[in-house]
């Protein structure tokens, strides 16, 4: 009996040890994933932000603050018409190249997820070879849906222009939450180029003010549109007029030369030619923020 009691006690002790080891191993695995922490970057949010669902991003990237989120439109037509619409391929490529060269990872999101429209007329001859760039094109064919995105991963958002940028993006509440989380909780940068500026006109700070209020903003102004064309009649709003109505100061120049405005952590570009200098300006802002917050610099991915 004593022998049997000893064996039973030993088995129970061994079982307890094994179960404790499994639990401790699982706890160690869970604690290996770092939490998003804002260090030394001033934020403008006083109320908590509701987190958006985590994206299907490789675990090795989770927790990194070296990612930039490209926000693109899904619409293939202008408004309710049958007029074809597209993202601006060059505004993707030139910014992608700049951000990647600076060591930042890039992800894509669109209202509907999946492939975004790319019309031939939006692909200049020098960029045709990039249509075979596998990493780039895989991203554009498989954009995430807004609910898949974890905004804690990103240091900046970049609103891409194109003729479809006024549809689906500006009024999407989840995309708005993502952008404002990056800006207010992560202390990150909001950027937009050309018609992509339409995406930021409805963004609102935690205190209720419009993001653009009191800021110098640029984008593709309505006076540069073909106002007698059918596509223009489909526009739900006008960029310059809406920025001004929200309290922003809109600036643009004549011609097709690059023109950007950087006001605090909001950076905007007027036209297609502004994509690269805008991306360079965003990189500059992120480097300054990284200097203020050591340990949150760029990550290659």
Automatic annotation (TrEMBL):
The secretion signal range is: 1-27
For this protein, the record's Pfam families field holds: DJ-1_PfpI
Indicate the segments forming the DJ-1/PfpI domain, all copies. 91-222
Q: Does the keyword Lyase apply?
A: yes
Q: Which UniProt keywords apply?
A: Glutamine amidotransferase, Lyase, Signal, Stress response
Record SUPFAM superfamilies: Class I glutamine amidotransferase-like (SSF52317)
Per the record, the domain of life is Bacteria
Family the UniProt entry places it in: Belongs to the peptidase C56 family. HSP31-like subfamily.
Instruction: Indicate what this protein is called per its UniProt record.
Output: Type 1 glutamine amidotransferase domain-containing protein
What is the native source organism of this protein?
Answer: Tahibacter harae
């Amino acid at each position: 009996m004593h022998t049997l009691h000893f064996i039973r006690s030993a088995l129970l002790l061994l079982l307890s040890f094994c179960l404790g080891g499994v639990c401790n191993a699982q706890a160690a695995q869970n604690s290996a994933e770092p939490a998003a922490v804002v260090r030394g970057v001033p934020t403008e949010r006083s109320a908590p932000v509701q987190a958006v669902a985590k994206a299907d991003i490789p675990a090795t990237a989770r927790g990194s603050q070296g990612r930039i989120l490209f926000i693109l439109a899904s619409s293939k037509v202008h408004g309710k018409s049958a007029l074809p619409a597209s993202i601006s391929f060059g505004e993707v490529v030139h910014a992608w190249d700049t951000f990647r060269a600076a060591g930042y990872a890039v992800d894509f999101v669109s209202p509907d997820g999946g492939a975004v429209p790319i019309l031939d007329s939006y692909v200049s001859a020098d960029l045709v070879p990039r249509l075979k760039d596998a990493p780039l094109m895989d991203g554009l064919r498989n954009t995430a849906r807004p609910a898949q995105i974890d905004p804690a991963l990103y240091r900046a958002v970049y609103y891409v222009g194109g003729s479809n940028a006024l549809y689906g993006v500006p009024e999407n509440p989840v995309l708005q939450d993502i952008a404002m989380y990056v800006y207010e909780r992560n202390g990150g940068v909001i950027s937009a180029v050309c018609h992509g500026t339409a995406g930021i006109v409805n963004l609102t700070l935690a205190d209720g003010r419009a993001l653009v209020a009191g800021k110098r903003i640029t984008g593709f102004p309505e006076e540069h549109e073909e106002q007698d064309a059918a596509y223009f009649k489909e526009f739900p709003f006008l960029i310059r007029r809406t920025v001004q109505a929200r309290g922003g100061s809109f600036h643009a120049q004549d011609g097709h030369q690059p023109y950007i405005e950087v006001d605090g952590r909001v950076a905007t570009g007027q036209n297609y030619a502004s994509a690269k200098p805008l991306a360079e300006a965003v990189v500059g802002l992120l480097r300054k923020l990284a200097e203020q917050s050591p340990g949150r610099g760029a990550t290659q991915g």
